[in-house]
Amino acid sequence: PRPQAKPVPGSSHSESSTMRQRMKDKLKAARSEMGLPTAEEAYNFFTFDFDPEPDEETRKGQKRRTRPEGENEEGEDGGDDDEEKEEEDKEEEEELFLIDQSADDFLVFKRAEYMGYQRRLQSENELLFTPSFLTVPASSKVPENMKPRYLEEEGLYVGERPPMSLTNQNILENRILKQEQGRKWFGDDGRIMALPDPIKESSTRPPLFHIEDDLDPALQTVYRKALVSKHASQYISVGGETNGDYQLDVDVSGLIFSHHPLFSQEHVLGSRLVQLYDQHLSRQHRNLTEHLTTKLNGLRNTIGNMLEVHGGQRLTPVMQQRISEYKQEVRNTRRLRDLEQEKDRTLLKGIVKIWKEIKALRDFQRFTNTPYKLYLRREEVERASDVREYEAEIQAEVDELLDEMEEDYQRKVTEYRRQQEEWKVWRRKQRAKNKKKKKTQSQLDDNEDDEDNDDDDRTDGEAEPGPPKPKPPEEPDMEGVEKQVSEKASRIRRKPGEPILVPELTASGPITPNEQCPRGEFARREDVAKRSIFIKVLYNDKEVSRTDNRSLNSDFRVHFGQIFNLKIVNWPESIKLQVFEVLGLSTTLLADVFVPVPESSILTGSAPSEELVFSSNLRVMFDHEAVGSDVPFSFEVDGSNRQTLLTSGKLSCSVSWAVGEDDVPLAPPTTQPNGLKQLDAIASIGASGLNDMKKLGEWATESRLDPNDPNNADIMQLLKVASSGEVTAPDYFRLEQLQEEFNFVSEEDLEQSRRFRLLRLRNQEVAEFRNYKFVPAMEREVTDKVFEVRSLREIVDTKGHLDAHRALVAKHLHKIRESIINRFLIAKHHFIMSDLVQEEQVPTIGILGLNLFKLAEPKRPLKPQRKERKKVTAQNLSDGDIRLLLNIIRAYDIPVRKPSVKYDTRSSSHVLNTYISGYERVRPFVEVSFQRSVLQTTTADGPNPCWNEDLQLPFSAPNGDYSTANLQSMKDEIFINIFDEVQYELGGDRGKEVHTRLEKHWLGSVKIPFSTIYFQSRIDGTFKVDTPPVLLGYSKERSLASDGGYDAVRSLTEGAFITLFITIEPQLVPGETIREKVSSAWISFESQESEGLLLASEVFERDAAVHFPDRPCLTTVININGKTVFITRYLRPLNPPQELLDAFPNSPQEATDLIARYVSLIPSLPDSVSFAGVCDLWSTCDQFLTLLAGDEEEHAVLLCNYFLSMGKKAWLIIGTAIPEGPTTYVLTYEQNRYLIWNPSSGQYYGQYDTFCPLQTVGCLVSADNVWLNTQAYTSPLRIRFDVTKAKLWKPFFSRAFPNPGLSSVQCITLHIILHLPFPKISLTCRIEKILKEKIMEWRPRNPTRWNRYCTSTLRHFLPKLELSRGRDVADEHRLELQSLLGDYRISGFPLHLPFSEVRPIVEAVYSTGVHNVEASNVEFALAVHVHAYPNNVLSVWVYLASLIRMR
Amino acid sequence: MTANSPSVFLLMINGQIEGANFPEYDDLYCKYCFVYGHDWAPTSGLEEGISQITSKGRDSPHRLVWNFPLEITFKSTNPLGWPQIVVSVYGPDTFGNDVVRGYGATHIPITPGQHTRTIPMFVPESTSRLQKFTSWLLGRRPEFTDPKVVAQGEGREVTRVSSQGFVTLSFNIVTKDTKRLGYDTTATETTHTHPVAAGFGPGNQTLSM
């Protein structure tokens, strides 16, 4: 209850006016307090400055201040009523003042008012309000005696409020509460009312309809191939031949405003008049009334004729039917005609009425605005005929109506009769029933007079309700009809004799000139003149052109008459015309007019101009005469009968397709709705995107989705569908589902298929399959044999070993090899620039100079230098391209045959033979076998033969793969065997025919691994021939003619030698880059050495490489774990097996030999072969002894360590040797001479031995230092081994860089297994058995007989050989054999091998060719002896002999 | 190999190295060779070839024409390692030294029919400016160790190349028994033969080492 606000008298005008404004606002607010605040109010509420105003108190305070003093005492807490009264008083007072007092009385002269700070504070406290930011208690926000009600708890949906900080919210609440009616802003729950956050967090997607199979089959999705719509791109591209030649003509002819804000009232009426007149004209043009009248007359005539023709006769039912139809038609037509006539009449009346209004308006305002003039032309009619026609018309109508009524009546009567009959029947039945019951007389009476009168009273209330009693139809009211007809006629038709009025509207009337108009009208006309109109043409919502500005005329018609030719490229989607009104500089959009895109058949020239209605709801008000738009106005003086008109008009335009030069319409082919374009991607995926219903449900429950929230409706619906139906949601994500589709075959198939297995093995570059060609296309074509190679290897490695321990070792070795090969493979796929691109080095000045110098060189030098051959990359090669070239030059000291005593006595021819050819005689030839192809030289004579023959052996790489890696890993060896060709004569005594038989006797062999040739590219030198310790029938006699000097030189070397030159044609590039790369990679990533040491060693090695490129220098090596270790760590005195030392306690020389032999008996396995050219791996001695396999380095290290422990001075020599290539030897210094030991053979050479295989000495390694050879020469013959000479040897550790005291990697003592844990007898037996089988296998055509006696003899002999280590037993042995087997010619020899596997033994036996004896009476003898050395080192002896019975 | 169940399929290639477009060079000749996987073998035809030297004509100043025929038939059991043709172009430099002008490779089209391929060509770049200068001076431009390098992806990251020109090849492909072995190489739409630039963008290969 607050006082009705009245304008508060203010001290000044401006203040009061603002106050008034505020009061107005408040008034409004108060008025609408019951409902929700309107938008405007809400806006005001939040934006309005509340500070001084909303409180009653502040207003009071203000008032108080404006008043003269003295009224201050008025109590603040005075009631509202008091105040109101007071205000009224005040008002009166002021009025009095206004009358009586002059301005001077208001002025008071006094001091400027100053208010003290405290006072001001106080007063401000009264005035100002600072809302607290404390939380308002809920109780003050809700109405009294009510508890806050939480809609959410009641299950109603409450939207999420927009986030707002609590402080701000509190401030707002406090502020609102201070206000009157503040509580209305609070909801039932005591919080400020707020709309839910309007921002939708997720995009909407279409409802999810189908879940699996629940769908009606008719609604099932049918999948079709995606069609690319022709209109997918907006550009018209049809065919392409008439591309883009389409033209749309837009003809904007003009527009007429049916209402415009600047219309005056007269204009409004005028336009209405025009509308009506237009209507009238169009009606007249159609002239429906006339047409219907004619039709009606025609119908009537037809009926009349028909009746006349058959005059009075009975009409056939067909005719009757037709007549009735005609009558029906007449009735309809008449009704229509009446309607039209009525419309005509009202239209005419309306026109006349409006015209009258215009005239009245013109009279009233005393000027004319519109040129309209309405003439009503009278067309006089002949009165009599007109009356007659009128009458006749009425009469005809009346007749017809009567007819109809009569008919109707008749029909009704018949109907009535029928109903009555029915009723009677029913009645009778009823009666009969009743009669039985009552049997009263009165009922009978009733029954009788039932005929006519139906007004009998129904006494029996118990009768069931039957058909209602029909009522007789009323008689038609004939007079009424006539009256009706004439009334109607007078209403809708002109009266008979009246002239026909034809309205004619002309726009030729004079318009009052501007100067004669009143001011308002004048302003309006001025306004009109200022305006102009133009139209923009928009095609596909892009403006393409616009018309000129046309000024608005007083008749509000604008004529443009412009045609725009649009060349179009895009499909037409919309054509829009925008009507703009220009006033000065401002432009207003009046209306958008959409023009339909024309059919392609609508062409320019034939297209009709269309009138398109537009309207605008713009609200325009004027302060002059114009009526405005959306503003109520009235024609009446008293302002009643208000009308509101909106701006509207008609735009006449036409849009059509242009016609080309040759009458071809420039229209694109029929446009189709562009359906595909609107589809969005998510919608097309549909519900299938959400498969995991369970999870969705869980999530929904977890996150407590409000089921009433409209935002969640989709999810809820989906969940409902999902939970209600027995939908089993797949528990995988959709992408995985697709993954399954992507799988090539199932995992099982992949495992089982042999073909896939083969492909995978090849892809993994497993050695056997690395370059497997032609994996068959069909599974069935892959045989299991393919895999046998691999499985064979594995089986051999584990089971095929004769010795369990070795099997274990082999297994271990295999593992290491696997891992290293894996690392190697990884490294192999790492490329550096030089692998791919060949680039010339930047030439140094020196090279440039050298090149310049070369220009002056003679073209054909006298001493030509060997040119380097061009190296061929192995990749380009194929089978047959590569040959192995061997030049076998000569041999020395071939064993010679011994003269047989028996031969001499028995056969004179033999004696003669030997006599002639000399005492000792040998006819050696060389047979080279490589990859099972065998070539041999011619036979030469004597123990020092010279062949000088070239042999070419074909070479083929395994699997036809000539890649570097493959060639490096080749294990093939070249066997160079020396044979003696022996000629026997048979049957020489008996007849004249002499048969000679040639036999070849093996004398010795040289094995050169292919890898050596490959890496060195050529081998040139003299090699020691491996000759068996015992060669039956041969002796290693020195040549008789040997002079002492020569003998002294080679005192230490015994045996035969052969000089060879081997190379590969064309030269292959050894894949050393990989080796270096890998090793360098390993160095860089793993080492236990200190950084400084590594750096120093790198520098040292680099220096060596720069200054002495041909001298191998090694400071760091890679151990078996792939880590870099400094080389000196490998050297440390290690005690050799005591057994060996004890063997010759008195002879240190013998012991040394034995130890060297022991070391050499450990099988050799070149790293570079087994590790496919990766690099040298150095294993420690105990690893070496455990593995029982290693290459020269391991042998050398072990030997050196043994020597060191024996108190010798020993070094490792890093150098190159023949045929091993880069290798490691051992150097010892004893008895003032240096001895060079080949650790793999156990042989030793003096420094000056010509046949020492060591060719270059790179550096020496001792336990504490490394020395690089800096002498001029590298050959051991020509260098000095005194490492103390700084000029000759450059030490690694010098005073500048002392040895940091590197500890050794070797164990202090080697663990030595003294005795074999396995029976060596069984091993012997097995080897023997295998060899016998093999020999029989190699002789498929001949029977192989074994001489047991000889075998046992040989078996006894072998241990002796072992003891003597192959020396000095030959003679007695021969004698022994001779005595035992006098009748046989024996050729044979013992083979000595270290033992690792059976295979090398078999190979060695095969290469001797003993089995090749073709004689029919040949017998064989084979004995095997295995001698065990400590630590499982085995020495195997195989004695093989062939025996031929002489007699 | 019975007719009912073939164990290999055949790929016959007829075509020619039509010509090249090297705007800056003249008097070029080209070599070609095929690179193919383990399961492939040429049964007939020439695996490698070297063309005549051609000079630019007066009327077509940008076009070098070789019209060097290719004819080779492969047999295979496995589409893995489908043959690629490697073309390398050589020609004299300003000093008359024979230097490489471009390497390029493309797979033989897998669909039967006629195809035209335009291969972008590139050459390895020198590692430094000095190298570039000396190689220019001495006429010893950097070359790939093996032209077949351009047919493999392995190790290319260490090279830098610059693009040179284009070589146009046309192929007529006939296959036999591919479908029998389960490889359907016929395209669904056989109509368009677009000159796809095989392995376009050798510039992308210029990753730093």
What topology emerges from the helices and strands here?
The complex is a heterodimer of chains A (1447) and B (209).
Chain A: H1 13-31, H2 39-47, H3 56-66, H4 80-100, H5 103-106, H6 117-127, H7 138-141, H8 166-178, E1 246-259, H9 265-286, H10 288-309, H11 317-365, E2 373-379, H12 383-438, H13 441-448, H14 478-492, E3 500-506, H15 519-530, E4 531-539, E5 542-546, E6 550-551, E7 557-568, E8 575-583, E9 586-595, E10 610-616, E11 631-633, E12 643-645, E13 647-657, H16 681-685, H17 693-702, H18 713-724, H19 734-742, H20 747-752, H21 754-763, H22 785-798, H23 804-828, H24 833-836, E14 837-838, H25 845-855, E15 883-892, E16 896-897, H26 901-906, H27 908-917, E17 924-930, E18 933-936, E19 946-954, H28 964-968, E20 973-986, E21 995-1009, H29 1010-1016, E22 1018-1024, E23 1034-1035, H30 1044-1049, E24 1057-1065, H31 1072-1085, H32 1091-1107, E25 1116-1119, E26 1124-1126, H33 1138-1143, H34 1148-1161, H35 1167-1170, E27 1177-1178, H36 1181-1187, H37 1192-1205, E28 1209-1217, E29 1221-1230, E30 1233-1238, E31 1243-1246, E32 1254-1261, E33 1266-1269, E34 1289-1291, H38 1320-1338, E35 1345-1346, H39 1348-1364, H40 1370-1380, E36 1384-1394, H41 1398-1408, E37 1418-1429, E38 1433-1445
Parallel strand pairs in A: 25-27, 35-37
Antiparallel strand pairs in A: 1-7, 1-13, 2-3, 4-5, 4-6, 4-8, 8-9, 10-13, 11-12, 15-19, 15-24, 16-23, 17-18, 17-20, 20-21, 22-24, 25-26, 28-29, 28-32, 29-30, 30-31, 32-33, 33-34, 36-38, 37-38
Helix pairs in contact in A: 9-11, 10-11, 12-14, 17-18, 34-37, 38-41
Chain B: E1 9-21, E2 29-35, E3 40-45, E4 48-50, E5 64-76, E6 84-92, E7 98-107, E8 113-124, H1 129-138, E9 143-144, E10 161-176
